[in-house]
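Please fill in the sequence for the structure shown.

STRUCTURE ENCODING:
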């Protein structure tokens, strides 16, 4: 199995978080420059559309990209504080032909001051009405950065749930 992990703006997947993900699958974590590339989502799609990707995951800006790519690849997503509504740098949303309404687990930090949790919840409410099937985890104690122990817990829960529904 393979995870496509997309980091946030001005960040990278840490070695510790990569190690957690590698317990479940091979990890592909491209180095992305969202600031200088408003077509990053389209370029990720083109680069990996022929790869055997099983899951798409991301945080913040990477969560935004993972949301759209998960739908286009018809793969489950795990998103941490995804920048689904507003972003500090422009990103074009490709017009993918979406094969399904998608499945995802979305982790939202109640103390996030970078990505407004209220915006994320409104966006997800609209997607629910459109058929997007997701599990929502509200972490009141979490700010924008996902602590390692929360990351590990959420990843484990994501894969345990995926096993139950298979």
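FILLED IN BY: designer on duty
SEQUENCE:
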């Amino acid at each position: 199995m393979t995870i496509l992990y997309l980091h946030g703006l001005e960040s990278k997947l840490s070695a510790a978080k990569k190690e957690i993900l590698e317990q479940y699958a091979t990890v592909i974590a491209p180095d992305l420059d969202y600031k200088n590339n408003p077509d990053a989502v389209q370029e990720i799609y083109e680069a990996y559309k022929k790869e055997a990707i099983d899951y798409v995951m991301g945080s913040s800006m990477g969560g935004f990209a993972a949301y759209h790519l998960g739908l286009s690849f018809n793969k489950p997503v795990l998103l941490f504080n995804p920048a689904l509504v507003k972003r500090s740098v422009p990103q074009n949303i490709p017009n993918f032909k979406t094969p399904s309404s998608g499945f995802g687990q979305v982790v939202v930090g109640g103390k996030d001051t970078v990505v407004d949790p209220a915006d994320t919840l409104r966006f997800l409410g609209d997607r629910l009405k459109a058929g997007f099937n997701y599990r929502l985890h509200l972490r009141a104690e979490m700010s924008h950065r996902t602590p390692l122990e929360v990351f590990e817990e959420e990843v484990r829960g994501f894969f345990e749930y995926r096993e139950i529904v298979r």
